[in-house]
Design goal:
Layout lengths: L1 E2 L3 H12 L5 E4 L11 E3 L2 H8 L3 H7 E2 L3 E5 L5 E5 L12 E3 L1 H12 L4 E4 L3 E6 L4 E5 L4 E4 L2 E3 L6 H6 L7 E13 L8 E7 L2 E7 L4 E8 L10 H11 L7 H10 L2 E10 L5 E2 L2 E3 L2 H4 L8 H17 L5 H30 L4 H15 L3
Parallel strand pairs: 1-2, 1-12, 2-8, 5-14, 12-19
Antiparallel strand pairs: 3-7, 4-7, 5-6, 9-10, 10-11, 13-16, 13-17, 14-15, 15-16, 18-19
Length: 366
């Protein structure tokens, strides 16, 4: 049983079914999770999608951010930077709409995996040979293993390992992505405007426009499920900002698709407990600004499936080897995110000037 039909869950479902497991995926939504901003496929995840036979399919769907421009309050461009290209040793990073990646992954496994939509895991009871699962609708079923692939706010993690606060490292920031229908930006281009401690961005592609907001803050008390409350937090935080921000706030007032969450990491000493394990953000959310969440989810899913396929009779060793192989990569990404956050959203005008100066120097070498 896999909880969560997003990137981690669908990738894991593919590899487990390939290795001969009978896989069931439960998802609380009515279909696979397709919302969210574009994502990057990087590093070892490029090999994962090639091994899955979908590299060329994904390339056909990729989008191209040609440049990222940091602008001042009048709109004057301060510095332009461009995404890094690949080299002879590996493919360049691939940027793709999240829904397109989900559709491709779902298409791979929908006919060889059992899906339960509109339901979720309510209770887990483990014994020596099985995990007894009670679903939200009251149904019960037994499985050999349960894998939580249900994201940063994982229900499986809460049931088996404890409250979310025990494993969350808050990095002092909040982030929001809002999808709108209007096209206020330049195609295949991202515009970013900084004021101390805050950033606003517009990313424009042929079919979609995304507004990006991130800001430093102490912990906020709000309902994670209440979109209206999140909308008000954004409006209040950015009400006195310049550049195009007043116009963008008007879009927020009517937008239906709003993502809002803390910039936090999930840090756990163990990802597995008896016959239950975690994968992707449920195990090791690296935080939104890492740019590696989807790639880590895909590589971790493949490693977990490989280790389980090596012998379920000794599943504790398989789970431990999964952690041994994947944790060093995760911890390296975890360590890099605070620096990225400071560079991306400086807390002073001097910091903004210094960041822009460093980007100009970087441009000389790419």
């Amino acid at each position: 049983m896999i909880s969560g039909a997003s990137i981690a869950g669908l990738t894991l479902g593919y590899w487990l079914s390939k290795y001969g497991f009978d896989v069931t995926i439960v998802e609380i939504s009515s279909s696979p999770r397709k919302g969210g901003s574009p994502i990057d496929i990087r590093a070892d995840a490029l090999q994962v999608i090639e091994d899955m036979g979908i590299l060329e399919i994904i390339k056909d769907k990729q989008i191209h951010t040609e440049a990222i421009s940091f602008v001042g309050e009048t709109g004057k461009v301060k510095v332009v930077t461009r995404p890094p290209k690949g080299n002879k040793n590996r493919e360049p990073d691939i940027e793709i709409e999240r829904k397109d990646l989900i559709n491709i992954l779902y298409g791979l496994i929908k006919n060889r995996t059992t899906f339960i939509f509109g339901n979720s895991i309510e209770m887990l009871e483990q014994n020596d040979s099985r995990v007894e699962v009670t679903f939200k609708n009251g149904n019960q079923q037994g499985f050999d293993f349960v894998i939580g692939a249900d994201g940063q706010h994982s229900a499986v993690r809460k049931i088996v390992f404890g409250k979310e606060d025990e494993f969350t490292k808050y990095l002092g920031m909040y982030v929001s992505v809002v999808q709108i229908q209007e096209k206020p930006g330049k195609n295949n281009h991202t515009l970013l405007y900084n004021s101390p401690g805050k950033i606003v961005g517009i990313s424009q592609y042929d079919a979609k426009t995304y507004l990006f907001f991130a800001f430093h803050s102490c912990r906020l008390n709000y309902d994670y499920h209440n979109k209206e409350e999140q909308r008000k937090l954004l409006l209040n935080t950015y009400k006195n900002q310049r550049w195009l921000v007043p116009e963008l706030l008007q879009f927020i007032q009517i937008a239906d698709n709003i993502y809002f969450d803390s910039v936090s990491q999930i840090r756990m000493s163990k990802w597995s407990k008896n016959r239950v394990s975690l994968v992707g953000d449920a195990a090791h959310c690296a935080a939104f600004l890492s740019g590696m969440g989807s790639s880590l989810a895909m590589t971790g899913a493949k490693i977990l499936a490989e280790e389980l396929s090596s012998g379920t009779d000794n599943y504790p060793a398989a789970f431990q080897q999964y952690e041994n192989r994947h944790k060093p990569v995760v911890e390296k990404i975890h360590a890099s995110v605070p620096f990225t956050a400071r560079m991306f959203i400086p807390k002073s005008y001097i910091g903004i000037w210094l960041r822009n100066s460093l980007l100009r120097v970087r441009n000389l070498f790419i």
